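Tokenised fold entry reproduced for everyone:
>
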Amino acid sequence: MQIKINRIDNDYLMEAVNESGNTLLMDGSEAIGGHNKGMRPTQLLLSAVGGCSAIDIISILKKQKQEITSFEIVVDGTKESVEEYSLFRKIHIQYKLKGTIDKDKAERAAKLSMEKYCSVSKTLEPTAEITYSIHINE
């Protein structure tokens, strides 16, 4: 796996490109001279844990013939300063699914993702407490 990152302005705006040519923009906050034209790297970490677990959950529920008509995720993270940097200490993921979905199956899929399959959550697990909740047709 390889990502190439190119700076595209005189400040902090950068474009990341994966091996397939897909791109995303990253930028710094205005507080450090960025222009908010892209996600900050720490926001990408929260996006990654939500996206990684979503792929797992969707895959598991599809195999169980569950019909998902809508899937929204809200990821909240709390950071703590350590020396000159900060670490995520708490991350909470809300999975909001709609469709013909058995709640027990959805809860089991989320548990499997968090405890077994999601590489991103496993990477963050040593420093962050990751919790989640499942909401079906709410």
